[in-house]
Amino acid sequence: MKLFFRQVGETGTPIIILHGIFGSSDNWLTIGKVLADAYQVYMVDQRNHGQSPRSDDFNYDVMASDLKEFIDDHNLQNAILIGHSMGGKTVMQFAMNYPESFSKIMVVDIAPKFYPVHHNMILQGLASIDLKNLKSRTEANELMKRFEESEGVRQFLLKNLWRNPEKNNEFDWRINVPVITKNIDIVGHELANEKTITKPVLFIRGSESHYIQPEDERKIWDLFPNYEIITIEGAGHWVQADKPQEFINVVRTALSV
């Protein structure tokens, strides 16, 4: 599958960044531009997100395969992979499926474990919006208040709204809501084909997030013995958005090693 991507930076080691569920390459543009002074940075839309193709197949094996195709198509050598949440699981799955195709990975606020479904209300809210008759993003935000109380999360989700010229300029979603809804349990699954990876793996977590717990370190150590966990104080699950400068500092330090 040919994934949509944005590139900033023309020289240096390639960095590939994968967003999380309901996200897109847009979310990482600010971070990417900062890193572009010394690296080629590729921000990729995963399948069923952003401007990448849609598919009924939606699991970590196929998303890892998409990433392998992207790396091969662009002839990227010794790439550094950064993935947030669902993107973090994709890069971990990629490491296990294609252990020779990267140099190091950075996993942002997710562990290699099972997570129960916890996006049902958001998905109900997205599906409840009558796109054909929707007048504005403000109206969509009001409708979503019944399903998601956080203004920040609602604004993040509504970045996926756009006017589709192929549908008479009506509002449409950049995310494949039906397929994501059908497969949302798979997003929380453990990784397939688990094996030990000895290359460097950095886990970056937010102090206010519950996604990586102390008891998860045993599983992380089993799969990624050459790992490090860094906690960014005051950050929640969207570490890079909550504390961008601190996040960039951690990434730059890891890149220099």
From TrEMBL:
The AB hydrolase-1 domain, residue ranges: 14-244
UniProt entry keywords in alphabetical sequence: Hydrolase
Superkingdom in the source lineage: Bacteria
One Pfam family hit: Abhydrolase_1
GO molecular function: hydrolase activity
Record keyword Hydrolase present: yes
Annotated protein name in UniProt: Pimeloyl-ACP methyl ester carboxylesterase
Originating species: Arcicella aurantiaca
